[in-house]
Amino acid sequence: MINNKCEVCIVLPNNTPVYETKSWVVSLNPDQAYLGRCYVTLKKHKGDLADLTDSEWLEFADIVKTLEAAVRHAFGATLFNWVCLMNNAFQTEHAKPHIHWHFRPRYDHKVTFSGTVFSDPSFGHHYDRTHVKKVLPKTLGNINKIIKKQFS
Amino acid sequence: MINNKCEVCIVLPNNTPVYETKSWVVSLNPDQAYLGRCYVTLKKHKGDLADLTDSEWLEFADIVKTLEAAVRHAFGATLFNWVCLMNNAFQTEHAKPHIHWHFRPRYDHKVTFSGTVFSDPSFGHHYDRTHVKKVLPKTLGNINKIIKKQFS
After folding, report:
1. Residue A73 with chain B: CB contacts under 8 Å
2. Which of A7, A103, B97, B135 has a CA-to-CA distance to A124 between 20 and 30 Å?
3. How far apart are CA A53 and CA A75, in angstroms?
4. Among all residues of chain B, which has the CA nearest to that of A126?
5. Quick one: residue B114, left, alpha or beta (phi over 0 = left, psi -120 to 50 = alpha)?
6. Per the CB < 8 Å rule, is A88 touching B52?
7. CA distance A50 to B66
């Protein structure tokens, strides 16, 4: 099920998941410019959304519901950007894309959490890839905990 | 089912669809920098992916399969970026987001179609929002036709 030439397959077991289902893992992105930013990664190595089964799609639909509700409740997010690209895998000759979603909560207000202020200066517009905020491991752990708590 | 304060609801009936299902409409974006770029828009006015029913998700899954296959066959696209944002709706005070996906085919090669050369200079990287190509209505019509043909 895993491909040992795929970076995502190799990294996936080392993540501390926020949440997981039979087919998907939700894990925080170390860049928290968009507070609560997560990866939602398929456990199996598949490279194209066209290859998802109906049950993988419906599990994903459940994650959309539960993750949005959790981050809305934890931090008051206003809306959510969902993005599936897989571009980087194609920088090598024998591309091994692995399905993962980028989940970016968007905020119409500043949020202070764990002593850090998070803001979304381009709210109402496309996410800004130069807006980066690598947080301390402790802060990342606290974000993980508060989101995870919403699932329990 | 439609909201007369929602721009998407108002514009939707005027589009010439490439393809449609019970719940979704696929229509070309006038910007064809990424050849075959489409909107995939929910017919009902709903503002959050969390509100989609299971059957709307599974119809969307079918569109992913058929649209990717059609554009791969028509133009030889290499991979596909799928993006659901809804940011612009939040530029007004009483936001009325309407679920729609941005579908951007990506190409590791140039494609000449209908007398126009299409290239993807940032292939292997995030799509470039400054890479814009408004094509002539005739060219747009030809793109529509060739994609539509794959569905028949």
Report:
1. none
2. B135
3. 32
4. B87
5. left
6. no
7. 8
Are A49 and A99 in contact, with CB atoms under 8 Å apart? yes
CA dihedral B6, B12, B13, B18 (to 10 degrees): -170
Q: Is A91 helix (H, G, I), strand (E, B) or coil?
A: helix
Contact call for A87 and B64, based on CB within 8 A: no
How many CB atoms sit inside 10 A of residue A88's CB? 14
Identify the CA nearest to A99 among candidates B80, B66, B120. Answer: B80
- Asked if A90's CB is within 8 angstroms of B97's CB, the reply is no
* Measured distance CA(A11)–CA(B124) in Å, rounded: 20
By CB atoms closer than 10 A (0-12, 13-18, 19+), residue A115 is: exposed
**Residue B63, CB half-sphere, CA atoms under 13 Å: how many?**
26
B136 Cβ neighbours under 8 A, 6+ residues apart:
none
How many other CB atoms are there within 10 angstroms of residue B82's CB atom?
20
Q: How far apart are CA B59 and CA B96, in angstroms?
A: 23
Cβ separation A126–B129 shorter than 8 A: yes
B87: distance to nearest CA of chain A, Å?
A: 5
Residue contact B125–A87, C-beta within 8 A: yes
Cβ contacts of A66 within 8 Å, gap of 6 or more: A19, A151
* Local structure of A89: helix, strand or coil: helix
Tell me the nearest-neighbour CA distance from B80 into chain A, angstroms.
Answer: 7
* Structure ipTM over 0.90, yes or no: yes
pLDDT tens for B42-95 read: 999 999 999 999 999 999 999 999 999 999 999 999 999 999 999 999 999 889
Q: How far apart are CA A31 and CA A84, in angstroms?
A: 17
> Could you tell me which residues are beta bridge partners of residue B17?
B27
pTM of the model: 0.96
